[in-house]
Amino acid sequence: MLFDAENGRIYALNPAAGLTWLCVRDGLSGQDSAVVLANGLGIDRATAREWFRISMNTFRNLGLLATAESKHAGPVSPAQKRSPTPSSRTVPPGLAVEYRLFDRIVRVAAARDPLAAVDSLLAGLRVNPANGDRRGCSEIKIDIVAQGNRWDLVVDGQIEATCELASLAAEVERLLLQNVVPATPHLLTLHAAALQRDGRTLLLAGPSGAGKTTLSLALARAGWSFGSDEIVLVGRDFNLRPLPLPPCIKADAFGLIETWFPELRSSSEHERYGRIVKYLPIKSAPLPALPGSVVFIRFDPGGATEIQPVAQFSALERLLAQCVFVPHGFQHDDVEELLRWHGEQRYFDLAFSDCDTAVAALSFFVGPRRRSG
Prior knowledge:
Blueprint (H helix, E strand, L loop, with lengths): L1 E3 L4 E3 L3 H11 L4 H12 L3 H18 L1 H10 L22 E6 L2 E6 L2 H11 L3 E2 L10 E10 L2 E6 L2 E6 L4 H13 L7 E10 L2 E6 L6 H10 L3 E4 L2 E4 L5 E3 L5 E3 L3 H7 L8 E4 L2 E5 L12 E8 L6 E4 L2 H10 L1 E3 L6 H13 L1 E7 L2 H12 L7
Parallel strand pairs: 4-6, 10-17, 17-20
Antiparallel strand pairs: 1-2, 3-4, 3-5, 6-7, 7-8, 9-10, 9-11, 9-12, 9-19, 12-13, 14-16, 15-16, 18-20
Helix pairs in contact: 1-2, 1-3, 2-3, 5-6, 7-11
């Protein structure tokens, strides 16, 4: 993840883009950067040069290079800034829906087809404009405007992305993460699934592909309260605010998840970063501050299901590796409070090849009947 502190935006980077950004930060030339990518990612030089070029173009389009250069060369010139959407590029009146994500009201205005695509992602967050509770909420306005066969996403009058209809939901998801998470008061953002049951909290931490979505849904099927499969905000009182977006199911898992949640069969397909996905319409439950466990998970299709405790020091290091965002305002005193919270958690490492045995192991090790120590 890359946080643009000047503009308050957060970006998800793949390994190639992340390594490219580190090269930019260290002032390496394009040739030297390609060597770093080739060595670091185990690819040939030609592929490294192409991935470097693609990453740099992405950074330019997002305005990140201009932001970085402005720290040394003064303000960004007007020509470098994105142009506001012309007033003539509006959507038909009346086609607007409001959603609430944390403490923000997201008002999306669009034609019927793009609005349906967005609603497949945000339907569970709909609010009634006539009687919705707006106390303490600010508003984000997203206009989705036709641009030939593609669609411009205009956030508060600023063009932020252009994409095909199939990718629209994924782009809206990305824009909401960039705009809402940094603006929501909290202590840390963790790359983790969050669930609760019988007075216990469970965080499943791990990188993309570790199995967080599938295992968290297996636990929800077994009676756990589902919070989130991907992102959770840790509040200053150490309550958990799971990101209440629906789980994103990849095509290779459609068959399995549909046996657990048949409603997935009727969900529409989308393209998300080059992969076909569906969003499962499952409600996210609020998670109060409760004693808990953090489990570092790893899906191992060829291995056995094994769970074992993790030492506190190693656990802290691994947990912070899954911290994807630290908001402004994190102070020295917060470190002490974080360490206190950390000392109250139980940590485990779980390698699993089968969800049913993994659920049974977690129910035994992190359930309320088992005493710590």
